[in-house]
UniProtKB/TrEMBL annotation:
<dbReference type="InterPro" id="IPR058163">
    <property type="entry name" value="LysR-type_TF_proteobact-type"/>
</dbReference>
<dbReference type="InterPro" id="IPR000847">
    <property type="entry name" value="LysR_HTH_N"/>
</dbReference>
<protein>
    <submittedName>
        <fullName>LysR family transcriptional regulator</fullName>
    </submittedName>
</protein>
<comment type="similarity">
    <text>Belongs to the LysR transcriptional regulatory family.</text>
</comment>
<dbReference type="Pfam" id="PF03466">
    <property type="entry name" value="LysR_substrate"/>
</dbReference>
<dbReference type="GO" id="GO:0006351">
    <property type="term" value="P:DNA-templated transcription"/>
</dbReference>
<dbReference type="GO" id="GO:0043565">
    <property type="term" value="F:sequence-specific DNA binding"/>
</dbReference>
<dbReference type="InterPro" id="IPR005119">
    <property type="entry name" value="LysR_subst-bd"/>
</dbReference>
<feature type="domain" description="HTH lysR-type">
    <location>
        <begin position="1"/>
        <end position="59"/>
    </location>
</feature>
<keyword id="KW-0804">Transcription</keyword>
<dbReference type="Pfam" id="PF00126">
    <property type="entry name" value="HTH_1"/>
</dbReference>
<keyword id="KW-0238">DNA-binding</keyword>
<keyword id="KW-0805">Transcription regulation</keyword>
<dbReference type="InterPro" id="IPR036390">
    <property type="entry name" value="WH_DNA-bd_sf"/>
</dbReference>
<dbReference type="GO" id="GO:0003700">
    <property type="term" value="F:DNA-binding transcription factor activity"/>
</dbReference>
<dbReference type="InterPro" id="IPR036388">
    <property type="entry name" value="WH-like_DNA-bd_sf"/>
</dbReference>
């Protein structure tokens, strides 16, 4: 067995959940895939997968290998392609993490445009409002919104997005509409913990920046969940403009305190420092430098 074949089988088995599907992906039988997997484990001297009649699960050693193996295979493919087919475009798998709603509305469009230029590229878009660990999850780059705190990452600024306050018509009919910042303290507020507000909502009224302490029955780490709670009439929400815009246009939410301003949130792409940059990532960053103006402007100013 070739060691490289064993690694490919291992990654495919984890991705698909079975040796039969891993074999189908690689063009070999499931029985041969299982044989390659066993030979790899013998060579490494450790069990990588736990086998049951229903599914495959990774051992601790398997999790450690899987954190690095997909990216290593991509790097190897890029290297060999550059040698064998120097005129070929970007290949391999580009893994990008992004916040859920922003990823659905903007990042997937951007990736479609990028892949149109590189048809041999595979895109793995992972949408989550939590910060992904790029190193352990094998992610090439992540779109992050807000203040960065991880000094181990390199970053490039892509743009910014504003924050707006909104509530459902039903909530406002039942509880009244806030007329000034101080009124927010008397309302149920839905707090999106992804917005690092340091103990309150930082808002400016009449050019004066204030921190307003808000309370309410819901703290969530999902912009979508915060939006849906607000639409359901559970309280007032402050969220990025691209999150609230559709609901505002459709009348499911009403904008509150439209003259109040919040500091815009930076939109940035981050990637690992201190490592050789894959060609696919370098090409993606170059693409972003040209495309970011069109794709990262949510265009909410007319609301």
């Amino acid at each position: 067995m070739d060691f490289l074949d064993g690694i490919r089988v291992f990654v495919a088995a984890v991705d698909t959940g079975s040796f039969a599907q891993a074999g189908a992906r690689l063009g070999i039988s499931g029985k041969l895939a299982s044989k390659y997997m066993g030979a790899l484990e013998d060579r490494l001297g450790t069990r990588l997968l736990q086998r049951t009649t229903r599914k495959l699960g990774m051992t601790a050693a398997g999790e450690s290998l899987y954190a690095r193996a997909p990216a290593w295979l991509d790097e190897l493919e890029e290297m060999t392609s550059a040698i064998n087919e120097p005129g070929r475009g970007v290949t391999g798998t580009l893994r990008v993490s992004a916040p859920v709603i922003f990823g659905e509305h903007h990042v997937q469009q951007l990736l479609r445009r990028f892949r149109a230029q590189h048809p041999d590229l595979v895109v793995d878009l992972r949408l989550t409002d939590a910060y992904s660990d790029l190193a352990s999850e094998g992610i090439d780059a992540a779109i992050r919104i807000g203040t960065l705190s991880d000094s181990a990452l390199m970053s490039r600024h892509l743009g910014s997005t504003g924050l707006m306050i909104g509530a459902s018509p039903a909530y406002l009919a039942a509880h009244g509409t806030p007329q000034c910042l101080d009124d927010l303290g008397r309302h149920a507020c839905i707090r999106d913990t992804n917005i690092r507000s340091r103990g309150g909502w930082e808002l400016s009224e009449g050019g004066i920046l204030r921190k307003i302490v808000v309370r309410g029955p819901y703290l969530v780490n999902s912009a979508r969940a915060a939006l849906e709670l607000a639409v359901a009439g559970e309280g007032i929400v402050m969220s990025p403009d691209y999150v609230l815009a559709p609901a505002l246009r459709e009348g499911r939410l009403v904008r509150v305190l439209a003259d109040v301003e919040a500091a815009p949130l930076d939109i940035q792409i981050v990637y690992l420092a201190g490592r050789s940059m894959p060609r696919r990532l370098r090409a993606f960053l170059d693409f972003l430098s040209v495309q970011k103006r069109d794709l990262f402007d949510p265009g909410i100013a007319t609301l």
